[in-house]
Task: structure prediction
Amino acid sequence: MKIIRISVFRADLPMKEGFYSWSTQSHTAFDSTVVIIETDEGICGAGECCPLGPTYLPAYAEGVRTGIAKVAPALIGLDPTQLDCVNHTLDALLKGHPYVKSAIDMACWDILGKKTDLPVYTLLGGKQQDKVKLYKVVTRTDPDAMAARIPEYRAQGYRNFQVKVGENPLTDISRIRKIAACMEPGEVLNADANTGWKQHQALVVADAIKDLPREHELLLYFEQPCLTYEECLTVRRHTDLPFVLDECMDSLAALLRAHHDNAMDLINLKINRMGGLTRARQIRDLCVSLGLPMNVEDSWGGEIATAAIAHLAHSTPTEFQFQSSAFHEYSTVCIADGAPSVKNGYMSVADTAGLGVTPIIESLTSVSEFN
Ligand code: MG
Result:
């Protein structure tokens, strides 16, 4: 099998709730890139990369497309089912920039699934769980408005809430305390600062909320308080709250160092930050071997990125897949048919071959084509 054409599209993903705010950032829509790879056997694969704006990670939407234009011509003629070979070629063509490679890698997994008539979760190790636990993001706004969202999300079936903080520490304490007060016993409150606090601010917040788990019988987690690994490690050593590392978990080396330092209890595994499903699977498998649970997700996306998340999460043992995100649920635009179904705070994919999604071409804007 050979790649004969690579088509690149962009899609605007506007937020259903009007905006999405975290730390000190706020956006009304996200620019996503969809890649469709065609083969000489008539099988096509789709992948997606959405970096969540230009200032979240060292990645940006135009960069995805510029990077793909750099590598795509040399991929024509390669066998897309030879995933490690494809990744080796990508690394030889472009050093770093894992987010550029993610949608291409994802599309190749889709092709491998269709070629073998197997769902991607089978190729990633097998269906370890029938449904994948989700969290719901509580976007950053004023504390009372955030707390008011909880009953609505709970009525949709969610029990895990990722509460966006990382702005003003005193307001953030109020956000966390008000939401904690309206939680039901056993629910998960994940206070995610997305790198927004300085170290001293994170220490103040951690101290101010340490009584909440006992007071409200909830499970309270503290996620990526500060920008650097070193700052996060210092905060980690000053709090007993379960600790999640996200933005600084950007490589295998970073994971190994953090595990050695006992710097976290969980990590966020984001597919495009690692460079695609091939590398994300390596990290996932290592985390399972190390006994380290994960939030299996991506930085953002529509139906295609969510399908990739779902396949990776389905093939992760339940006790290691702490929670995931169904990003297509947050957008007003649908870019593919066959998305994972979402019900009562869980998602699941159909048992179709590949990723199970078919891009809706009319919803996409064509950018470039390589053949
Ligand atoms: Mg996070």
Summary: The longest helix spans residues 98-116. The radius of gyration is 20 Å. The domain at 122-358 is CATH 3.20.20.120 (TIM Barrel).
